[in-house]
Structure formats: structure tokens, C-alpha cells
Amino acid sequence: MPYNTISVIGLGYIGLPTAAVFASRKKKVIGVDVNQHAVDTINKGEIHIVEPELDIVVHAAVTEGYLHATTTPEPADAFLIAVPTPFIHDNDGNSHKADLSYIKAASKALAPVLKAGDLVVLESTSPVGATEKMAAFLAEVRPDLTFPQTHGEESDIRIAHCPERVLPGHVIRELVENDRVIGGMTPKCSKAAADLYNIFVEGECVITNARTAEMAKLTENSFRDVNIAFANELSVICSKLDINVWELIALANRHPRVNILQPGAGVGGHCIAVDPWFIVDSCPEEAKLIHTARLVNDGKPQWVLEQIRQRLDTIHCTQPGMTRSDITVACLGIAFKPDIDDLRESPALGIAQQVAELGCRVQIVEPNIEALPGSLQADNVTLTPLHQALTQADVVCVLVKHKPFIEHADQVRDSKHLVDAVGLLG
Ligand SMILES: NC(=O)c1ccc[n+]([C@@H]2O[C@H](COP(=O)([O-])OP(=O)(O)OC[C@H]3O[C@@H](n4cnc5c(N)ncnc54)[C@H](O)[C@@H]3O)[C@@H](O)[C@H]2O)c1
């Protein structure tokens, strides 16, 4: 199938680079987004998100006439849906069910322009069964067309799931180089989707069915989560047994078939801390280990906070005149992982907020941001340079292993009351 016109629905961190890379291969690309600001920005050849090299690729694609953005879907030969799949928002904030309403809205919006022979690919990270649901949403609007769920290989429309596993900061390179898992609802659907991705993918396009492709993405992130949970649990055990967990892991990893990950302040970001819940939600009785790993990792920030409280208690005991507001706590790092500015689901950010709520003066040292986020806007919280925090703070907590902290590890080591959640000092 020659894909002359390709439409990408949802022009965020995943959709926009994908649209731009198709356009860079001289395909006509129609980008669709409900966000008018994003559409206007892209049509000026500019970008509304932060991703290295993306600005250059988008600018070239728009000025050469291969990419344009719109709020209303237009006819195309292939449609890729890359809209958000967050948790359903419930009143107590405890829902771990995927919200498929964005996929539903995107499907209903594009269905009127579908024609026989078109391909629709779901790229959003989704619970198992979401691709079939997307096909059902489309079929509801277009009873005049046939779909794989009712007509199999003979259907008018081809449907597939192709999850995305790019690393933010390296998206343009990884989009092209990574292998892709392609799960069609039928073998013909898979073949059609593989033909589409082969336009720019230099990695291998590996074919499976839609449910396995959905589960593959969730499995990759659950694997990481479970392995990090093992390291985090070890760190708590070792603290109780008075063993240096960093030394322990380095020793155990000398075994040729052992490779334990590093403990930290918890697990954050919008993938590893989220996707395993889609498995737990689908199979609550069966997903015991995956569920426990989530609880272990989600519990780690509270444990780190307890370590900080213990340092505060020590100060109160040795200097009884000092009140909470007299004590300065430096939090080194609030991003969800080293050397990025992304604060989404960040355990370090949550710890810093709770330290501020304890009433201490809090100095946030985060070399990757220029202003504190709204949740840390308080009189007792300041964004502070590293050297100032290290000279002024009574308690220093290392929450993220950013490069500048590694470079100044010796000064950090001199801190009188230290919590090292990430093994900066080993
Ligand atoms: N960002 C990543 O690193 C990453 C990696 C792998 C997978 N994913 C998955 O990819 C999907 C998209 O993630 P993202 O980071 O690109 O999200 P994003 O929030 O950056 O972008 C989503 C875009 O979709 C638009 N949108 C929402 N509803 C729409 C609709 N009905 N029609 C058209 N546009 C609509 C939004 O305005 C937004 O611009 C999610 O399922 C996410 O889990 C993301």
C-alpha cells in the first residue's frame, strides 16, 4: 500500500516527532490536535514542546510543505493515534484504570473521513483490549465500512497497535533506530502497519497481534519497575541491618549472572510509575508481583522522608533551642530522574513538598530548572545554588543523582546531617 497521505492525531511528545519524521521522508502529513495553540505553533514551523532537534525537523517539514496541522481530521491513507492515556480521574485520586476517553474522542473525530483501504494505528500506551475498543468506536460511527472484528482479513479498514518506547531527549534518533512491535488485529493489518513504519524505521518491525503488542509495552515498563523495586527493598533492608546497600549491590553484581539496579528515592515519570497499574487493573488477582513492586516503589519516598525526620530529631535533641523553622534542609534534585527537567510523578518533588510542610526552611537545588513549580511556591522554600545550600543547610538530602552533584560529591560528604537516597557517596 503506498501511503501518500498520513495523519497523526495528537501532536505531543510522541505524535509531533512521528509526524515530522514521516514528513522528512517526503510524505504528506496532516497533524491533528485539539489544542489550537499547538496547531498554530506548528503551522508557523515552530514547536510547543521541548525535544532536541525536533524544532529543526518540524521547521523543515512545514516550510517544505510536507506537514500541516489542523484541529479537524482530513482524509488520509493511514491514521496514527497518539493521544494521552492517563488514569481515570476519580474523587479520591486512587484510580489506576486507564482513561480511554481521549482514544474514543480521537476515533469518533476521524471516523467520518475514513475510506475503504485505510489503516488506523493506536500508538498510545494502552491496557490490553484498547485497540479492539478503538475499532469498535470507529465501527459505531461508520456502519457502512467493515472492520477486522467482524470481517477479519476481508475488512475495509485495517487496525493495529504499535507502542512507542522512545527515550525523551533522544526521540528523533530512537524513532528511527528502535525496533518496533507491531500488532495487527489480523495478519493483513500487521503487514499494512509494518509497511507504514518501514517508511522511516531502520530497526526491525516485529509482527505480533494487537493484544500482545499492548502487553509488550506494559511488560517492558513493569520489568523495569519490578527490578527497581528489588533494589529499593534491598536498600530498606540494608538500612535496618546496618549494611551499606551500594557496596552490597556492587559485590553481588560481580556474580556473572546478577545485575541488580540502583535504589533511589522512588520511581517517577509518566511511564514506569503508571503503565504497570494497567496490568494490575486488568488482572488484580494474578498480578501479585507487579502490584507489590508498585507498592514498594511508591512507599520509598515515605521511607526517605522518615530518614529526614530522624535527622531533624537528632538536631532537636542536640540543640533543644532550635525549632523546625530554624532548621534548613537542602533537597538536592527534584526531577524524576538524573539530568532532566521533567518533574512529572517525581518522588523527589513529593519528598521536598513534605519537608516544606514540616515547617523547615527548604533549599531546593535543581540545576535543570529556572523556577520552582507551583507546588513548591511557599515562603519557606527557595531555589538555591548548590554551593550556597551546602554551606547553609543543616540537613542535606540527595534525592536525584544529577551530574553536578556527582562532581561536588566531596563537598556533599562534609554535610553533618546527610540523607543519601541515591548512593551519591556510594
Ligand atoms: N512521552 C513519552 O515519552 C511516551 C513514551 C512512550 C509512550 N507514550 C504514550 O504515548 C501517548 C501520548 O503521549 P505524549 O507524551 O505524546 O502525550 P502529550 O500529552 O505530550 O500529547 C498528547 C496530545 O494529544 C492531544 N489530544 C488530546 N486529545 C485529543 C483528541 N481527541 N484529538 C486530537 N488530539 C488530542 C493533546 O492536545 C496533546 O497535544 C500516551 O499514551 C503515552 O503514555 C509516551
Which descriptors apply to this entry?
13 strands; elongated; 426 residues; binds nicotinamide-adenine-dinucleotide; 8-stranded mixed sheet; 5-stranded parallel sheet; alpha/beta; Rossmann fold; 42% helix
Q: Summed up, what is this model?
A:
This protein has helices spanning 15-24, 36-43, 54-63, 101-110, 130-141, 148-151, 171-177, 187-197, 210-241, 245-252, 275-282, 288-318, 347-357, 386-392, 403-407, 409-413, and strands spanning 5-9, 28-32, 67-70, 78-81, 119-122, 158-161, 180-184, 205-209, 328-332, 361-365, 381-383, 395-398, 417-420.
The termini sit apart by 56 Å
User: From the 3D coordinates, which CATH architecture of the largest domain would you assign?
Assistant: 3-Layer(aba) Sandwich
The level of helicity is 40-55%
CATH class category name of the largest domain: Alpha Beta
Order of helices and strands: EHEHHEEHEHHEHEHEHHHHEHEEHEHHE
Walk me through what this model shows:
The structure is a single chain. The strands form 2 sheets. The protein has an 8-stranded mixed sheet with strand order 3-2-1-4-5-6-7-8, sandwiched between helices. Strands 11-10-9-12-13 form a 5-stranded parallel sheet, sandwiched between helices. The protein is of the alpha/beta class and 426 residues long. The longest helix is centred in the middle third of the chain and has 32 residues, at 210-241. Helix 4 links the parallel strand 4 (78-81) and strand 5 (119-122). Helix 9 packs across helix 11. The protein folds into 2 domains: 5-203, NAD(P)-binding Rossmann-like Domain (Rossmann fold); 244-420, 3-Layer(aba) Sandwich (Rossmann fold). It is elongated, with a radius of gyration of 24 Å. The protein contains 16 helices and 13 strands. Bound molecules: nicotinamide-adenine-dinucleotide.
